[in-house]
Design a protein that fits this description.
By secondary structure, this protein is α/β, with parallel strands linked by helices. The protein is built from twelve helices and twelve strands. Bound molecules: nicotinamide-adenine-dinucleotide and L-homoserine. Its cofactor is a metal cation.
């Protein structure tokens, strides 16, 4: 039985939930998936770092989090020590789930780079490294014979990237449009229900949807990163963040939304990209009042959906959860499953 030793970088909603899944469903994972997962290191900005090659007692680690509690109380350190932990721990796979920094992706870009350079695979839900340094990091992974997987960076646990790459083979993708941020979609819906902005955002935060700074959700920075990822990963656009124009929903008022609903339209924050006749790609994020018969108009709550424009099939839509601790923790697990499948295939062909 293969055992993958993993390190959790960032021990917030997503990585804690992955630890809970491993702690409570380990036997089921083993019997269903054919491998074991063992957490050998955890770091967190607030909790410090804990490195235990024999395996961390997750029941203990998951209880941590009280005021001023750090890993120092359990044989670890109050210091995060990310570079030393990432480069030197015995993990096969680094699970990076720290804050997304939409400006330069740091320090997560460095976390991923240190892991790949030290021969460790990486799975991440952090949009920064994927959007801003994706090509460079994928190349570094290949050079080092390891994997860089990031299914959770767009649409959380909904496997849109893998589905599009594997199931759209033979099709030419000419563009896409989608609802790619669960928080803003949830907020728009709750404002239609009559809540004000702040109350709706608070609910999204309590549900674990929102970024550490929810302005990233509301002002469109999160969708801008996701549009960049999809455009470069699936349309081979070769564009940069500055090429994706961005407008958020902070200027919208509940009355605007209710007026549109009465007129048979729903305001949505839509991310889109399209290939131009000269082959260039135009991309952006903006609020749009969609007619009720539009394929995206009925997408509600934290659900996401993206419609791809294809040459042979016309529009093909993928829809599913776009945010949520469990849904996103599953994305990391799906990345590890993909790594295991690739490793098993290589072994079978050896
Ligand atoms: N929550 C979701 O629905 C969702 C979905 C898809 C992607 N994501 C992305 O996944 C990542 C994690 O999301 P989350 O909901 O767990 O966020 P979170 O804020 O709950 O947890 C992030 C954790 O990372 C820690 N951290 C931040 N910087 C660190 C550093 N330099 N070193 C070590 N630890 C650090 C924080 O202390 C925190 O505990 C984010 O980048 C987010 O954008 C989240
Ligand atoms: N804050 C993001 C998490 C998923 O990337 C959202 O609401 O969609």
């Amino acid at each position: 039985m293969t055992t993958y030793d993993i390190a959790l970088i960032g021990f917030g909603g997503v990585n804690r939930t992955l630890a809970e899944l491993i702690n409570t469903r380990g036997e089921k994972l083993r019997s269903e998936l054919g491998f074991d997962l063992r957490v050998v290191a955890i770091t967190d900005l607030r909790l410090g770092s804990l490195v235990q090659p024999e395996g961390v007692d997750l029941s203990v680690a998951l209880k941590l989090g009280g005021d001023n509690e750090t890993f120092a109380a359990y044989g670890g350190s109050a210091d995060t020590n990310n570079e030393a932990v990432i480069r030197n721990c015995t993990a096969d796979i680094i699970c990076e789930a720290t804050f997304t920094n939409p400006d330069d992706g740091e320090p997560a870009v460095s976390h991923v780079r240190w892991a790949l350079e030290s021969g460790k695979s990486v799975c991440t839900t952090n949009k920064g490294p994927v959007a801003l340094r994706g090509a460079e990091l994928s190349s570094l992974a290949e050079q080092n014979g390891v994997h860089f997987e990031f299914e959770g960076a767009v649409m959380s646990g909904t496997p849109v990237i893998r589905l599009a790459k594997k199931m759209f083979a033979g099709l030419k993708l000419n563009g896409f449009e989608g609802i790619l941020n669960g928080t803003s979609n949830y907020v728009l819906g709750r404002m239609e229900d009559g809540l004000d902005f702040d109350a709706a955002i608070k609910e999204a935060q309590e549900l674990g949807y929102a970024e550490a700074n929810p302005a990233a959700d509301i002002e469109g920075y999160d969708v801008q990163l996701k549009v960049l990822i999809l455009a470069n990963e699936l349309l081979d656009a070769g564009i940069e963040l500055k090429d994706v124009h961005r407008q958020g929903i902070s200027s919208m008022a509940p009355e605007d939304l209710r007026k549109a609903a009465r007129a048979g339209r729903h305001w949505k924050l839509v991310g889109a990209a399209r290939r131009n006749p000269d082959g260039s790609v135009t991309a952006g994020v903006s609020p749009v009042a969609l007619p009720l018969d539009h394929g995206l108009a009925g997408v509600s709550g934290a659900t996401n959906a993206v419609s791809f424009e294809t040459d042979l099939l016309g529009a093909v839509t993928i829809s599913g959860p776009g945010a949520g601790r469990v849904e996103t923790a599953y994305a990391l697990l799906s990345d590890i499953i993909a790594m295991h499948a690739a490793r098993t295939e290589v072994a079978a062909n050896a």
